[in-house]
Amino acid sequence: MKTLRLKPGKERSLQRRHPWIFESAIARGGADSGETVRVESHDGAFLAWAAFSPVSKIRARAWSFVETQRIDAAFLASVCARAVAARGLFDLQSDGVRLIHGEADGLPGLIVDRYGDTLVAQFLSAGVERWKAAIADALLEATGLHKLYERSDASGREREGLKPVTGWLRGEGATEITIREHGWKLSLDIATGHKTGFYLDQRDSRQRFAELAQHRRFRRVLNCFCYTGGFTVAALAGLQAAGAMDGAELVSVDSSQPALEKARANLALNGFGGEGSGVKAEFLDANVNNVLREFIEQGRTFDAIVLDPPKFAPTAAHADRAARAYKDINRLALKLLEPGGVLLTFSCSGGISADLFHKIVASAGMDAQVDGYISERLGAAPDHPMTIEFPEGEYLKGLVVVKKPA
Ligand code: SAH
Question: Which residues contact 71 (CB under 8 A, 6 or more apart)?
Fold first, then answer.
């Protein structure tokens, strides 16, 4: 058994069950990519079993803090089964579900989403890469499903010294899938979509947006960074429930043409926004920053705006530049809001804390000379859990800002 010996004082985070062992904490020891190592304190006390990753800054990720635990296929099968079973604890109202959320589920670097009867997995660390076959079998066993598609093409793989891999890992089937989320249908493509094909983490916020649309009967909605149109569909579902679709205008903006095509298709799939529906749905293939500026120049206003940008700050090191980018779009969006209008604004950057995000939005409000109420705080849906030991797990945060009436 290979061993990693830590430097004095570097045992503390593992003792708190934080699963990462940084290169800088290691005094000596090493192993092959993904190989299991025994991690010990400077004086030889057992700390964890971990998967070694020879090139990553996160040099090892803990599998278990129990000395008697054997790290083998049976162990991984039990961890997978536990994570899958835990999803039954949440009322998700969707057949698109995140089954394994990496570190939070004890499987560092593994993401698994279920879309109907198809599983999509991202193997993003040396440890889960090495155990891929065992994990794939365990996932099918735990879910009773037969199809598993691999989307290991995220940038995190490079940092682990791993090449991108995509394709069917078990079984085979259609890559275009329609899921049911709340009362509506959403089509996605697991082979060509972002990440595993869809942003399941925003499920509850989309539902909240539908409720707000129903309650407030929005007339003009701007969905920025719309991807495949989830928030637009949600708004229309809310307006339909209120009997207020007629005359509504919805602008959806993204810089990805394929995403916009899907967004259009998703409206049609739900019977929204077709000819004679009374709804005006616009799709703009453009940079959100430019669109916001143009709309201000044109004097356009909206009574609801969604800002759900990509990750501007992957780590805290990018926080400064990202903060400026977040502030900019929030300032522009606040200007475009009608008094009483609603802004749903998000950051999915791990490097921006909830507190910092609040401050960024506050200073955007100052610059825009807009006063607002923060009526709600939003976060990732519960199948993307955070754990007590792993604060990095909190990545997605959102605020509902209501512009004070004039
Ligand atoms: N709100 C979406 C997810 C948004 S993901 C949902 O509920 O599914 C972020 C999106 O921003 C991606 O679709 C990406 O194509 C788009 N994007 C990134 N930078 C952009 C920019 N500068 N202008 C417009 N869209 C951008």
Answer: 36, 49, 63, 64
Nearest atom, ligand 1, residue 256 CA: 15
Q: Say whether 104 sits in a helix, a strand or coil.
A: helix
Where are any strands of DSSP class E within 117-183? 118-123, 147-152, 165-170, 176-181
Reply yes or no on whether the pLDDT at 76 is more than 80: yes
Quote the CA–CA distance of 343 and 87 in Å, as a whole number.
30
Q: Which residues contact 89 (CB under 8 A, 6 or more apart)?
A: none
Give the H/E segment covering residue 239: helix 230-241
| Tokens of residue 59, six digits | 């040099």
Is 348 one of the annotated active-site residues of the chain? yes
C-beta of residue 209 within 8 angstroms of C-beta of residue 306: yes
* Residue linked to tokens 């162990």: 75
What stretches of 218-363 adopt beta strand conformation (E)? Answer: 220-224, 249-254, 280-285, 302-307, 337-347
Confidence (pTM): 0.96
Q: Residue type for 347, please?
A: S
Query: Residue 231 CA: which ligand 1 atom is closest?
Result: 7
Q: How far apart are the CA of 48 and the centre of ligand 1, in A?
A: 39
What residues are in contact with ligand 1 under a 6 Å CB criterion? 199, 202, 225-228, 230-231, 253-256, 259, 287-288, 308-310
Cα 199 from Cα 109, distance rounded (Å): 18
14 Cα–ligand 1 center, Å? 36
pLDDT 10s digits, 378-397: 999 999 999 988 887 889 99
3-state secondary structure of 193: coil
Asked if 265 and 187 touch (Cβ cutoff 8 Å), the reply is yes
